Every structure is written in C-alpha cells, then in structure tokens.
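Anyone able to model this chain together with zinc ion?
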Amino acid sequence: MTEVKIGCEFHIQLNTKTKIFCSCSTSSSEEPNTNTCPTCLGLPGSKPAFNKEALNQALKVALALNCKINKRSYFSRKSYFYPDLPKNYQITQYETPIATEGKLEGIRIKRIHLEEDPGKLVHQGAITLVDYNRSGIPLIEVVTEPDFKSPNEVRLFLRKLTTVLEYLKVYHRKSELSIRTDANVSINNGERVEIKNITGVKPVEDALEYEIKRQEKEKNIVRETRGYDADKNITYTLRTKETEEDYGYIYDPDLPEISLTDEMLKESKESLPELASERAIRIIKQYKISKEDAEVLTQELKLAELFEAVAKDISPGLAAKWLRRDLARVLHYNKKELHDVELEESHLKELLKLVEEKKITDQVAGKILEKLIEKPFSPKEYVEREKLIKITSTDDLRRLCLEAIAENLKAVEDYKKGEEKALDFVVGSVMKKTRGKADPVLVKELIKKEIR
Ligand SMILES: [Zn+2]
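re: yes, here you go
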C-alpha cells in the first residue's frame, strides 16, 4: 500500500468591490488592462493603501475555520521576477500571518494570510499577453498541514471549504475558478513534490491522482515544483531546488502593521452568519428531517434557502426528498448546477404542492421539474393547460388497462408463466397512454385483477 501525504495551499479570491491596495474595481467582466492604476501596475512612486473590507473578510474566514487570530500581523514583499508581477515583488504576509492553527473537518490549518493576486498571463500561441486587471485582487491563502491521505480527501475538503466561504459571502459558487490550489505530495515518506496553480475543485483531485501514480512508477523522485496541464491531465517539471529563502522576503515599509483590537475581534465574531454545520443542526430540529438529508441540503447555500422556503408550506419530508434526490438528478442529467438555473421558490412550491395534494403523479412532476430548470413558468397553470391532473377514475384506468392487455398479449403470457417483470411492460404501456398521469401502483393492481 502506498502511503500518501498531501498538504495544500488554497488561494481564494475574496469578494470585495475594490482591490486590496488601490481603489480599482475587481470586476472580471471588463476589457483587459482597464481596471488598473499606478499602484496595481507597480509604477514607481505609487503607494499601496490597505482595503479594510479585505481584512474583514479574511477575519471572518479565519474565525469560521477556528483559527487563532494574530492581533498584530504584517505585510512583506516576496521578491520574484515574472511578467505577471510588475513591481518584481508580491505583497503578502510571511513572518506573521493574520491567523494560524485552525481546523476544518479534522484537517489542521497551519496559517491563513492575506496577499495580492498577480496579473494574469494569457498564452496565445507563441506570444504571451498580460492582463493586469487581476493584479491586486485580494487573496487569502489557506495553508493546511500535510494531513490529507488521498486526493479524494482533498476534493471533499475543498467542497467543505467552499461551502464555508459561500455562507460567509466571500465567495460565489459561480466562480469556482477563483480558487487556485498548490498541493505538496509525497509517497512512502519520499521527496516532496509541489504541484502549482491547479484551478477549480475536481482538477485538484485529478492532478494529485496522476502525480501519485507517477511517483509510484518512477524510481528517482526529486524534490521539485511541477505544473498541471488540465487538458492532458498530466503534471510536468517547472523547476527544481527552490526554497522559501529564495524569495528574499522583507517587511513592506509602505504598509503599516495590521493591528486588531479586542472590539474588532468581538464584532467580527458576532457578525459571523449561521454556517452550514449549524444550519444542518437547526433544520433537523425545526423540520424533523434526517441528518443525512440536512447535510446534503445545507452543502449549498441556495439549496438550503430553497428548502427552507418550500418547507414552510409543504411537508418538509417531501420537500427534502424532491430537492435532494429529484432536483439533483434532473440537474445532473442536464449537466447543470443549481446556481446556473433560474429556479424560483414560488414555482417549486407550486409544483410540490401539486404532488403533496396528489393532483399530479411523481412522474408528471419529474417531467415538469425538467422543464422548470430550463426556464421559469407556473407549474399550476402548466398542469391545467396541458391537462396533466392525475387520473383517479378507476373506470377510465380499467378501460386503458384492458386496451394495454389486448395489445401486449405476449407479455401477459410471460407474466402468467412466472416472469414477474413482464408485467412492467403492460404497466408502462398504460403509463404511456395516460402521459404519466396514472399511479403506476394502482395500474399494476388493476392489470393483475383483469388477467387473473
Ligand atoms: Zn489599481
């Protein structure tokens, strides 16, 4: 068995309106190099001014991750020479970060620090373009201890972390790409290899799986920094022998220390919203749903909000089932995420009310849900217009069953010979005739009665 050890550095763009050391917008929808000023372009003579909102958000994350907060922390200059960094140094926290010693899901968090994002390099064939719109966007770096034992654990952790960030409103699920991971991985206590700059959540797992296989195959693993090519799903050597000392950190003389008072900490603690784990505990109590349902429903803020809005008016058990299973299935099938679709609470409520009152069958409701994630409409009006109310008259159903029996004599014969499944064929035929408007259990009973 290969023993795997992984430690991660997650770089997360905060959700501020302006950059960390200047008042340029952080909006990502502008033309390249338009959200810039002398400070984020690193022009000589420009001075940074620290954005307090970035501090507020970093503090919330640190508290939510159960960290020890350093009341005094500092900014340093990390020197390196690269086109994405016009000053030739990145402002970051090195010697004393804002927070240390946290924990999430049993994984120890070594430190959290604030820093500025460098510009973005865009490679176009032989030429490389630089976009400084990203330069100076506030980042926090969450550094874990090497506590992960598999790539899958890293992915699950990253999902939990994004949930925390989402509840704190410092992160939009839409912008999964705004999280970049550096991962250190070693196997069987061998040399440690760092994979840099993996974007997104699933690619982190893919990159680590590839890298572990590579290390298992190769005899001489050297300490190095590797890149990850997501299209080819491979890691490749970037550089070897590089240590933190190579960056020549020095304190930044242009920025004062960050000093936090007890009041500021208290205020920040009190401003923390209800987090996913707390919400799960509350909704189990409040709505009497299972722990498992509550955990799934609270993983995504929008899903949790949708559930609570719907569960006020219809049976929470029914709401939990439909949101957790049916909605998830429909989204998954259409390769969509909840945050991509315009699903309105009122429409979902109408739909589930029709199910609860047994006016439509589950099958019809499932079909409507598929349409609802395409575009908003009133399920109630739709059901009336398309005449989708459940057929409750057994006379009507019996007539359709007799038709189906006559049309599927072979299946009926097979059933009589003991092939239980053959009957589903006849039931399916009735369901088709009714466009899903019949209760399949009742239809089965009726057919059995007729062919006995
Ligand atoms: Zn600027």
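The chain has a mean pLDDT of 88.
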